[in-house]
Amino acid sequence: MYFQSKDINPDVDLNQRLPVVHAQKETVPVWKSMKADRKAIINAVIGKLHNGVARLDIELSARNAGHLISSAAKRGIGGKAHIAAVRNIGKLMKVAARVKSYADQDGQQDVKRIHRFYAPMEYDNAVYAVNMLVKEYSGDRDTELESVHKLYDMKLERKMPDRSADEASPIGHARTATGISEITLGELLSAVKPEIYARTGGRPETVRLVRKEFLMKRFYIIGFLVLMSFDTLAQISFKQASLLALPAEADAAWLFRLFSRIWIYGAVAGYLGAFITWMTLLKYAPVGPSFAASHLELISVTLLSVWIFGEELNVCKIAGGLLILLGVLCLAEEGKAAGDEPDT
Q1: How far apart are CA 254 and CA 233, in angstroms?
Q2: 168, 187, 208 — which closes off a domain?
Q3: Among 180, 208, 236, where does a domain finish?
Q4: Which has the closest alpha carbon to 115: 97, 101, 95?
Q5: Is the pLDDT of residue 201 over 50?
Q6: What is the number of structural domains in the chain?
Q7: Is 3 inside a domain boundary?
Q8: Do 256 and 185 lie in a common domain?
Q9: Above 60 in pLDDT, residue 261?
Q10: 74 SS3 class
Q11: Does the structure show a pLDDT above 50 at 176?
Q12: Which partner from 196, 224, 258, 332 sits 20 to 30 angstroms from 179, CA to CA?
């Protein structure tokens, strides 16, 4: 299953299973890891890392490794779990999935693109979403390992609920006797908060729940189809009721004849259903595109009138229907652009 969103690359497979990196529990205080053990940790993790999913060699310099350690006190979840992630950065990068790639907008010299990777890590009976930032250079820049990809930053964005090994396995998980061994990328991203202000060179970035966005799109599609169905029912029913009620007369017999036909009740049900559906959609959908989409019944009524009432379908009606569709699509795109936050 593939989703397109401003927060993920179009080809990201949310059903991709990621091995969970199991990190040993830290036995020393965080301050000691950041000070006394800092050099030993740096020497153990620096060098060329490899990402097996994207097939990239990524350099981790001593300077950037030190930055990762320092982030334990001021970035994301921090603490011992962050230090454990630094110690296992090679394993995390090996299994990480590249979720988003975008052009650098900070004007840094030789930086071609920024890549954001995610990997799951289990630490102290909890699973964390580890966010790793990789900068891709143009290739003209001299690097210690002659690599154009450099790991620049890392943070733990989310601690998922604790799970014991004997719990029933939820959908998306594969379990071993020691805990979770795999997790889908979609579930990992869905565990991240809807609003995370991850600093990328001082630039805030919004990360949204992809699954929530997908469900809302499906809600809009189904909702407007239901609205169009109710509106169409109301118009066709009124047409049928009017044909059966003619000639109109101002007496009780005419009213009895009108309300004895099922079509008048179909018209009332159509209007009531359309009203309730419209109010529900307006609670979530932008009013501009919604108002335009609410007139799609003009097309459905025209087509059904040709079939039910034998009305003529000419070039003018076809062109009008196409223009209505075009207008709805244009307003929908404008509403989407207005609703998206700027990626700057």
Answers
A1: 23
A2: 208
A3: 208
A4: 101
A5: no
A6: 2
A7: no
A8: no
A9: yes
A10: coil
A11: no
A12: 196
- Residue 246's identity, in one-letter code, is L
Q: What percent of the chain lies above the pLDDT cut of 90?
A: 22
Among 121, 131, 116, 133, CA closest to 64: 133
Q: Are residues 130 and 222 in the same domain?
A: no
Nearest to 236 by CA among 293, 322, 309: 309
Contact partners, residue 272, CB within 8 Å, separation at least 6: none
Q: Which of 235-249, 268-282, 313-327, 328-342 has the lowest mean pLDDT?
A: 328-342
197 and 231 belong to one structural domain: no
The answer to whether residue 5 is domain-embedded is: no
pLDDT per position as a tens digit, 270-297: 999 999 988 888 877 777 667 777 778 8
Note whether 114 and 140 are same-domain residues. yes
For residue 174, the SS3 value is: strand
> How far are the Cα atoms of 191, 203, 258 from residue 74, in angstroms, in the given order?
21, 16, 74
* Residue 98 and residue 35 share a domain: yes
Count Cβ neighbours within 10 Å for each residue of 35-66 and write b for 16 or more, e otherwise.
eebeeebbeebbeebebebbebebbbbeebbb
Residue 152 CA to its chain's centroid (Å): 25
User: What number is the average pLDDT over the span 305-319?
Assistant: 86
Residue range of the domain that includes 316? 213-339
| Per-residue DSSP letter, 285 | S
Q: What are phi and psi of 317, to 5 degrees?
A: -65, -40
